[in-house]
């Protein structure tokens, strides 16, 4: 499925807590977020399903899809539009078989070796990162920098989104590196005005056709 990766919001339960998850996400969508991922590394599946359903309802008036991080069962039970998995989050083939052909399925890639092993026919996009070290993911891989990002994006048969320590000032460099968009947590969720924060990215980003 074709997916607009221009500005991809990944949520964090703590950074969104003060304003509330749904309100943060809806504001960010008003500011131009094109895709949302519900990411919560600590909640149980049973806790996450109602959160995902509420988020899906909050996004119903927009055309912005909701993806779930890591949890296939949550994606299936909540009516989300898809799933994002990493290298250690299960098999792409299994996820695609369970989700069906119409769901959005993304995979994290950090190295050329991982890229060489992907099954592109089963995936919709790749998340490439981290571009920079970031406290939002303590167990992140070695940072790629823009040169490493360009190497992966240039060799990818799929659309790509860059992630890790990205701010609005990096939009041009990410585009020059060949990625189709930016995925961010703190630069939107961690600000007092998520709508304005999203807009500051979006002004510099147009979907690549
Ligand atoms: C868009 C996007 N890209 C990469 C990741 C990281 O996924 P993963 O390596 O599985 O790490 P966790 O997010 O699960 O900690 C992502 N979530 N989204
Ligand atoms: C969820 C995630 N995945 C990464 C990867 O490298 O795969 S970096 C990351 C955290 C991104 O948060 P922030 O925008 O606050 O840096
Ligand atoms: Mg994961």
Commentary on this structure:
The chain is of the alpha/beta class and 209 residues long. The protein has one domain: Alpha-Beta Barrel (TIM Barrel). It has nine helices and eight strands. The protein has helices at residues 21-30, 45-58, 72-78, 92-99, 112-117, 145-155, 171-177, 186-189, 194-202; strands at residues 7-10, 35-38, 66-69, 82-85, 104-109, 125-128, 160-163, 181-184. The protein has an eight-stranded parallel beta barrel, surrounded by seven helices. Strand 2, helix 2 and strand 3 form a beta-alpha-beta unit. Helix 2 crosses helix 3. The longest helix has 14 residues, at 45-58. The radius of gyration is 16 Å and the shape is globular. The two termini are 14 Å apart. The mean pLDDT is 96. The site of ligand 3NM has 17 residues, from helix 8.
Secondary structure elements and pairings:
Elements (H helix, E strand, L loop, with lengths): L6 E4 L10 H10 L4 E4 L6 H14 L7 E4 L2 H7 L3 E4 L6 H8 L4 E6 L2 H6 L7 E4 L16 H11 L4 E4 L7 H7 L3 E4 L1 H4 L4 H9 L7
Parallel strand pairs: 1-2, 1-8, 2-3, 3-4, 4-5, 5-6, 6-7, 7-8
Helix pairs in contact: 1-9, 2-3, 6-7
The structure holds ligand LCLJCK34, the ligand Cc1nc(C(=O)O)sc1CCOP(=O)(O)O and magnesium ion.
The site of ligand 3NM has 17 residues, from α8.
Keywords: Magnesium, Metal-binding, Thiamine biosynthesis, Transferase
Pfam families: TMP-TENI
Protein name: Thiamine-phosphate synthase
